[in-house]
């Protein structure tokens, strides 16, 4: 920014405080259908509003066509749940944007470890397991299982998977491994971007007995797999893990070298004399080099 120039003011997207608006003054662009009302998501929202009230305000904007009315920008299901429960007003956040912008497109689904911590925090604050289950519209056994989610899991493995959407059953496989192996498996899941129970069980099958918790039973051996084949798979799994770590450590530098090389190649081919020389004497090489530069342009 040039000296002496003040930064341009940034317009506020929302009002500084929430406001209470009667429900009959709020309209939605898309009505809530019977199919949506029958969905699990709507049932969870209704249960949450019934048990603990409206936690997240409804985002609204002023209806430019009808004075004194508001349009829902985000939160039409919460609005419908309030109406169904007989409420008259809603806590709203007034947006200066009058377009139907969906804020949930910028919202990430809560990871399972974060959900576990949220449940623990709610119970610490005095909420019973029954009430938490009712608020989330799930069975109490589901809450108890998530409450014990990290029992027997290494803190280092937890830190690696904290923001990942891991299958709840994958933690059962992790508990059968020693802490060091849990960390290795968690790193492998992140590198491969695979967090399913089937992948966790595959890594468990490839875990040597020395890295299993004493008294923990490995998944039953697959029919047709001999002890020798299992031993080979374990060695290959260890080798693959080491190779992935090497690739992960050098990937950034290798990618930078590739980008620089392709950039140099593009500038070289832009030289008319070089281009003409290759066209006269090395057409095949020129075609290959041109293809590489075109691929780089496509990636960019």
In short:
By secondary structure, the chain is an alpha/beta fold. Among the domains are: 19-106, Conserved hypothetical protein from pyrococcus furiosus pfu- 392566-001, ParB domain; 227-299, no CATH class.
Description:
This protein has 300 residues and is α/β, with parallel strands linked by helices. Among the domains are: 19-106, Alpha-Beta Complex (Conserved hypothetical protein from pyrococcus furiosus pfu- 392566-001, ParB domain); 227-299, no CATH class. It is 54% helix and 8% strand. The protein is built from 13 helices and five strands. It has helices spanning 34-37, 40-52, 76-84, 112-124, 129-136, 140-147, 155-161, 170-174, 179-192, 197-205, 227-270, 272-281, 283-299; strands at 19-22, 26-27, 58-62, 70-74, 89-95. Strands 1-5-3-4-2 form a five-stranded mixed sheet, with helices on one face. Strand 3 (58-62) and strand 4 (70-74) form a beta hairpin. Helix 5 packs across helix 6 (140-147), helix 11 crosses helix 13 (283-299) and helix 12 packs across helix 13 (283-299). The longest helix is centred in the last third of the chain and has 44 residues, at 227-270. The two termini are 27 Å apart. One of its GO terms (biological process) is chromosome segregation.
